[in-house]
Backbone:
C-alpha cells in the first residue's frame, strides 16, 4: 500500500500477506510432513 505526504512517498507492507497463498502453503507442508521422508527428516 502506498501513500504520500507533501514531499515524501511511503510504502507499507501488508504483514498479513495473501491468506489463500498462506493456506495453500500450509496444506502442502502438512501433506509433505505426513508422506515425504525428506521433509520429515528436515
Residues:
Amino acid at each position: 500500500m502506498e501513500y504520500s505526504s507533501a514531499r515524501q512517498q511511503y510504502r507499507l507492507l501488508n504483514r498479513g500477506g495473501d491468506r489463500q497463498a498462506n493456506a495453500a502453503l500450509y496444506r502442502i507442508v502438512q501433506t509433505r510432513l505426513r508422506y515425504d521422508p525428506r521433509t520429515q527428516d528436515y
Notes: Residues 19-35 form the longest helix (17 residues). The chain has two helices and two strands.
